[in-house]
Amino acid sequence: MVDNLKRNIKAKLKGDDAEEKIYVFQLFIVGSSNVSINAIKNFKSICETNLNNKYNLEIIDINEQPQMAITENIITLPLLIKRFPLPEEKMFGDFSNTQKVLEFLNITTQYKK
Known about the structure:
The chain is an alpha+beta fold.
């Protein structure tokens, strides 16, 4: 994920074509609950359908990495953080409302088929 962030920042500084940017996301979940599983499934489906493989998704289970919940000030799960492109944005839920997710991430028309 860090490599993608560095590549995207360098491309942005050089003024490279926006089509080449890779979205970078972190999805925070708790264990293998139905809500966590649905959030992963729903968000991956949205990305695969709308971002044409131009994304990196890191899934972080706070049961396995509890320090991340403290570092990111997480109080509600599942939580998605869009790291790139800037600005960083956060959204929580199970991501079952595709249109709402696309609007929140401002990717409604950029890559949609």
